[in-house]
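Two proteins, back to back. First:
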Amino acid sequence: MEVSKTWSWKMILVLIVAFLAEWGFPWSSNASGKELSTPSNKLFSNVTQIEAGQFDGFAVKEDGSAWAWGAYNASKVYYANSSAFSPVKLPIEQVKQISRGDRFYLVLKKDGTVWASGANEHGQLGNGVQNDNISLEPIQVKGLSGIKAISAGSTHGLAIDEEGKVWAWGGNDQGQLGIDSRNNALLPVKVEGLPPIVALDAGQFGSIALDNGGVIWSWGIKKYTANATDEVRPPARLTGNGEFAAVADAGDKGVALSFNGTVWTWSNYSPDQSTVLLQPVQVKDLSDIISISSYSAVKSDGTVWQWQNDQNGGTYKQVSGIEKAAKVSDAWSHHFALLEDGRVMSWGQNFFGNTGLGVIDERIETPQPIPNPIRIVLNGEEVTMPVPPIVVNQSTYVPLRGVFEKIGVKVKWDVPTRSVMASKGDTTIVLNSVTGETSVNGKVIPSDQKPISLRGSMMVPLRVIGETIGAKVDWEPATYSITIEQGE
């Protein structure tokens, strides 16, 4: 059936507005701290682990699936040059834990094997090779089995096996592998001189571990200088009497949780002196803690607290708006709190979609629940896109090449005019990203939306699909989906 183009774009626009308004499409805006209007049953949930990277986030769900958002791809990991502002499923299953390095990430599967994806210029993928190649999908780290926990530092990886032995690989210019060398290890090597270890955390300049007697160990850089005369430390025991239950690396600082619920920090290295006292100092008056991260902690009442380090142990304050938290994870500018019910609260810097909230505000001041990514169902089949849809000014935007090409529309980017040009049959639509003008076959049509370039992806308003080819676009609240049915 041939569809009138005039009827097409006008009626589809009416349908979109009517359906989405009637069914409560989750419009959102958040720079001012307003809560997202996402239905509670459509939130990103069933999460068992959360991990904050430098400009991104990762999550593991109960079903063993792994998810990521933000610039996990902009750093040339996975989808090359574009950021995802909502969670994207990673190509690996049966995941137990995930850990993020600078330009790579590690995955521990439920069968005890370790996998790695991303850059390999330091040998951090653990496959026996050091090169500039990028692994877009996880590959298995060689020689590891029966692994219980992992941690990715800036350029190195750590793993604990069933016997409590620690294995290390990757970059070692600052002694972060804890071995008798400063050469990189392209395959996992055992870290000697340690008792059985139950927890560890790899950092930028070193590594820390917790043994089965509650004692903390640290190794890596000890003195950092600008003239390449850095001094490194082999695995060394911190002062203490076995009172610690958890550890976290915070760059030049280390963080520990004691069995009595207090938090302690210490300096891992000094910029100007060789003598660094590995002596934890208590964060004043912070108690009743059950979980820690680099700069945050969770109290037994489910509230979240953050601190800033100083020579006296630091000061802290409560993060408002979070209840029933179980765990926290920090990056330098954004934060996540995993709630007891498996949902995730997020806040902080969002330039690359760091928060996973699906909005383009550059900073989120008030913690908000991460929503599920919006699904696109085209002619009854879900469309998988490396960059999920986003909401901008109450309109849904999709990647230029994520939907159009699947319905036979040819698309291209016209550099001189900075316009998106899409054509099918005898219909050509031009969307100018500078002027905001939209035209069909040379005739300007009313539109207050224009294409936007978003961290490497050209995003276009979804209604353009209906306006140009007569597709029917509906919002399905039950499945949190936008359905597109192409006209005959």
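And the second protein:
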Amino acid sequence: MSRREPCPRGDLNHVLHRAYDALLPHQRRDPTRLESGISSGRHRSFAWTASFSLLQPPSGTSLPMGREPTPTPAAPTAAASSATLQTGTQSSTLVPVASPDPADLSEELTVDSLRDLLAESADATVDSVRTALLPYLTLMARHQVQLSITPPLQGDVRTQRRLNDALGFDQVLAAVQPLSDTLPDLPHVVGEPTAQLKISREEAAAAKRLLVPVQLRIESLETLLNKSTAEVNGHQAEIKRLKSANVRIGSLFEKSKESMDVQTENLRLAMNYAEQKQDIIDALDKQIEKEREVFRTTVSANTENTRKLHDRLRRVPGSMLTLLR
């Protein structure tokens, strides 16, 4: 089969349907070849489910890319296959159907080679074809799983080119990066982190228990902080009010200072005026003192003249006084 036209990832049923359409064109048209497969037709869907269940690994494991599935012996005829399917239906375990010795898988698988393989037996049935194709279907399932798990190859141009140019499953599987064979050890790998997770959860629970008194202390401190914050806010409001009062008092003080400066200037002018008046008063006092001295001198002279005149009058006789009167 060609890898030139890649199918969508995970579309395994579509790929198988196209493969069987290409492999069995004559058997579907020839009713004589389908008579042997009619008896197992009602088990076909169950057989397909059984085959695909064989291709899927158990839960938590994966099939390594380099290993081949271990084939188990199968019945050579359709009757034996039907009996095996009926027995598998009645029992709880399903017996896989595989070819005894598959062909060399290194050779390219083509439609012509599969037709030649079918032409070797005229009594080929669907079960025998499925048995012959089981190794290739296993590789196909692995390839589909690989395409589902591998990250996209948009950035890896060389791998994408090799994958597009690959012919056959071997080249396709060689072009794609093989799966890691670490899933069988998954329980052990997961067990250790699970134990660590459990220990971490216990430590986290213990830490939470230790944090309870700290949380209570933090809550009490938050309450105290809120109370202190309220008091600080009250003090800040009082400080703001006092600042406003100080601003008003400062403005009044500035006005009073300006008024005092004006009054001081007026007082200085008044003092200068008073000094000038005092100088005038001193000059007038000196003048008055001089006038007094002059008056005193004049009065003294007049008094002396009057005394002299009185003395002279006393010396005059009485007859003269009568005449004078």
